[in-house]
Amino acid sequence: MAIAPIPPKAAEASSKQETAPKSELDKATADRAAKETAKNAQNAAILAANEQVSLKANSESLRLLYKTALEAINKELEPVLGENAAQKTYDSGIDVSPEATAERIVSFATKFFGRYEKMTPDMDEQERLDSFLNIIGGAIDQGFSEAKDILKGLNVYEGEVERNVDATYDYVLKGLAQFRERMEELMQKKPTEQ
Hints:
By secondary structure, the chain is mostly helical. The protein is built from seven helices and no strands. It has helices at residues 8-19, 24-59, 61-81, 98-110, 113-119, 125-153, 159-189. Helix 6 (125-153) packs antiparallel against helix 7 (159-189). Mean pLDDT is 73; it is low at 13-21.
Protein backbone atom coordinates (compact mmCIF):
# COMPACT_ATOMS: atom_id res chain seq x y z
CA MET A 1 0.00 0.00 0.00
CA ALA A 2 1.52 3.27 -1.06
CA ILE A 3 1.10 6.36 0.98
CA ALA A 4 -0.15 9.28 -1.01
CA PRO A 5 2.03 12.42 -0.78
CA ILE A 6 0.63 15.32 1.23
CA PRO A 7 -0.54 18.11 -1.01
CA PRO A 8 1.72 21.20 -0.82
CA LYS A 9 -0.87 23.54 0.81
CA ALA A 10 -1.64 21.00 3.48
CA ALA A 11 2.09 20.61 4.25
CA GLU A 12 2.47 24.38 4.69
CA ALA A 13 -0.51 24.60 7.01
CA SER A 14 0.81 21.71 9.10
CA SER A 15 4.25 23.37 9.32
CA LYS A 16 2.77 26.71 10.42
CA GLN A 17 0.77 25.03 13.15
CA GLU A 18 3.90 23.41 14.60
CA THR A 19 5.86 26.72 14.80
CA ALA A 20 3.00 28.96 15.89
CA PRO A 21 2.26 29.35 19.61
CA LYS A 22 -0.27 26.87 20.79
CA SER A 23 -2.38 29.40 22.68
CA GLU A 24 -2.76 33.06 23.47
CA LEU A 25 -1.03 32.44 26.82
CA ASP A 26 2.01 31.00 25.02
CA LYS A 27 2.06 34.00 22.70
CA ALA A 28 1.85 36.48 25.60
CA THR A 29 4.60 34.62 27.46
CA ALA A 30 6.83 34.69 24.41
CA ASP A 31 6.20 38.44 23.91
CA ARG A 32 6.92 39.17 27.58
CA ALA A 33 10.15 37.16 27.45
CA ALA A 34 11.26 38.98 24.30
CA LYS A 35 10.52 42.40 25.87
CA GLU A 36 12.32 41.43 29.08
CA THR A 37 15.35 40.24 27.14
CA ALA A 38 15.43 43.50 25.16
CA LYS A 39 15.05 45.55 28.37
CA ASN A 40 17.85 43.61 30.08
CA ALA A 41 20.12 44.17 27.09
CA GLN A 42 19.30 47.89 27.10
CA ASN A 43 19.97 48.15 30.85
CA ALA A 44 23.29 46.34 30.44
CA ALA A 45 24.28 48.77 27.66
CA ILE A 46 23.33 51.77 29.83
CA LEU A 47 25.33 50.43 32.77
CA ALA A 48 28.35 49.75 30.56
CA ALA A 49 28.19 53.26 29.08
CA ASN A 50 27.80 54.81 32.55
CA GLU A 51 30.79 52.84 33.81
CA GLN A 52 32.92 54.07 30.89
CA VAL A 53 31.87 57.68 31.55
CA SER A 54 32.59 57.31 35.27
CA LEU A 55 35.99 55.73 34.69
CA LYS A 56 36.96 58.35 32.15
CA ALA A 57 35.67 61.19 34.33
CA ASN A 58 37.56 59.81 37.31
CA SER A 59 40.86 59.73 35.46
CA GLU A 60 40.23 63.09 33.80
CA SER A 61 38.79 64.97 36.80
CA LEU A 62 41.70 67.36 37.25
CA ARG A 63 41.80 68.08 33.54
CA LEU A 64 38.08 68.95 33.81
CA LEU A 65 38.73 71.06 36.89
CA TYR A 66 41.52 72.94 35.13
CA LYS A 67 39.46 73.53 32.00
CA THR A 68 36.45 74.74 34.02
CA ALA A 69 38.62 77.10 36.06
CA LEU A 70 40.14 78.53 32.87
CA GLU A 71 36.72 79.04 31.34
CA ALA A 72 35.67 81.05 34.40
CA ILE A 73 38.90 83.07 34.27
CA ASN A 74 38.34 83.75 30.55
CA LYS A 75 34.82 84.95 31.24
CA GLU A 76 35.93 87.34 33.98
CA LEU A 77 38.91 88.75 32.05
CA GLU A 78 37.15 89.04 28.70
CA PRO A 79 35.92 92.64 29.20
CA VAL A 80 39.46 93.80 29.92
CA LEU A 81 41.75 91.39 28.05
CA GLY A 82 39.64 90.09 25.18
CA GLU A 83 38.06 86.79 24.22
CA ASN A 84 39.67 83.49 25.35
CA ALA A 85 42.73 85.12 26.87
CA ALA A 86 43.65 82.03 28.91
CA GLN A 87 41.95 79.29 26.90
CA LYS A 88 44.22 79.66 23.90
CA THR A 89 47.14 78.17 25.77
CA TYR A 90 45.13 75.31 27.32
CA ASP A 91 44.84 73.11 24.25
CA SER A 92 48.30 71.52 24.52
CA GLY A 93 49.00 68.29 26.45
CA ILE A 94 49.38 68.83 30.18
CA ASP A 95 50.39 67.17 33.46
CA VAL A 96 47.25 66.85 35.60
CA SER A 97 48.70 66.36 39.10
CA PRO A 98 47.28 68.72 41.76
CA GLU A 99 50.55 70.66 42.00
CA ALA A 100 50.98 71.04 38.24
CA THR A 101 47.30 71.87 37.73
CA ALA A 102 47.40 74.54 40.44
CA GLU A 103 50.65 75.96 39.08
CA ARG A 104 49.10 76.32 35.62
CA ILE A 105 45.94 77.91 36.98
CA VAL A 106 47.95 80.46 38.96
CA SER A 107 50.37 81.04 36.10
CA PHE A 108 47.61 81.57 33.55
CA ALA A 109 45.65 83.82 35.86
CA THR A 110 48.55 85.98 37.03
CA LYS A 111 50.29 86.37 33.69
CA PHE A 112 47.53 88.77 32.68
CA PHE A 113 48.38 91.19 35.47
CA GLY A 114 50.71 93.23 33.24
CA ARG A 115 47.97 93.71 30.68
CA TYR A 116 45.45 94.45 33.41
CA GLU A 117 47.86 97.03 34.79
CA LYS A 118 48.07 98.78 31.41
CA MET A 119 44.29 98.69 31.01
CA THR A 120 43.67 100.27 34.43
CA PRO A 121 46.08 103.24 34.65
CA ASP A 122 43.65 105.23 36.82
CA MET A 123 44.09 102.83 39.78
CA ASP A 124 46.95 103.02 42.25
CA GLU A 125 49.18 99.94 42.50
CA GLN A 126 47.62 98.40 45.60
CA GLU A 127 44.08 99.03 44.37
CA ARG A 128 44.97 97.47 41.01
CA LEU A 129 46.52 94.39 42.64
CA ASP A 130 43.51 93.95 44.96
CA SER A 131 41.06 94.40 42.08
CA PHE A 132 42.93 91.95 39.86
CA LEU A 133 43.17 89.30 42.58
CA ASN A 134 39.48 89.74 43.44
CA ILE A 135 38.55 89.14 39.79
CA ILE A 136 40.88 86.16 39.47
CA GLY A 137 39.92 84.75 42.88
CA GLY A 138 36.22 84.96 42.07
CA ALA A 139 36.76 83.31 38.69
CA ILE A 140 38.82 80.52 40.25
CA ASP A 141 36.20 79.92 42.95
CA GLN A 142 33.49 79.81 40.29
CA GLY A 143 35.54 77.41 38.16
CA PHE A 144 36.20 75.06 41.06
CA SER A 145 32.55 75.16 42.08
CA GLU A 146 31.38 74.33 38.54
CA ALA A 147 33.94 71.56 38.18
CA LYS A 148 32.86 70.04 41.51
CA ASP A 149 29.22 70.15 40.40
CA ILE A 150 30.11 68.35 37.17
CA LEU A 151 32.13 65.71 39.03
CA LYS A 152 29.34 65.24 41.56
CA GLY A 153 26.86 64.85 38.70
CA LEU A 154 29.05 62.09 37.29
CA ASN A 155 29.19 60.48 40.75
CA VAL A 156 33.00 60.58 40.82
CA TYR A 157 33.56 63.39 43.33
CA GLU A 158 34.76 61.20 46.17
CA GLY A 159 37.92 59.55 47.43
CA GLU A 160 41.04 60.38 45.44
CA VAL A 161 39.22 62.71 43.05
CA GLU A 162 37.89 64.82 45.92
CA ARG A 163 41.30 64.85 47.64
CA ASN A 164 43.00 65.92 44.39
CA VAL A 165 40.50 68.72 43.77
CA ASP A 166 40.87 69.98 47.36
CA ALA A 167 44.68 69.77 47.15
CA THR A 168 44.65 71.64 43.84
CA TYR A 169 42.50 74.40 45.33
CA ASP A 170 44.85 74.72 48.33
CA TYR A 171 47.86 74.97 45.98
CA VAL A 172 46.07 77.63 43.95
CA LEU A 173 45.37 79.71 47.08
CA LYS A 174 49.03 79.43 48.12
CA GLY A 175 50.14 80.42 44.63
CA LEU A 176 47.91 83.49 44.62
CA ALA A 177 49.19 84.48 48.07
CA GLN A 178 52.79 84.16 46.81
CA PHE A 179 51.94 86.27 43.77
CA ARG A 180 50.47 88.96 46.03
CA GLU A 181 53.61 88.94 48.19
CA ARG A 182 55.90 89.26 45.14
CA MET A 183 53.87 92.14 43.71
CA GLU A 184 53.78 93.97 47.06
CA GLU A 185 57.56 93.53 47.43
CA LEU A 186 58.03 95.01 43.96
CA MET A 187 55.76 97.92 44.86
CA GLN A 188 57.82 98.64 47.98
CA LYS A 189 61.10 98.55 46.01
CA LYS A 190 59.90 101.10 43.46
CA PRO A 191 61.12 104.61 44.12
CA THR A 192 58.29 106.81 45.29
CA GLU A 193 57.27 109.41 42.76
CA GLN A 194 57.75 112.98 43.92
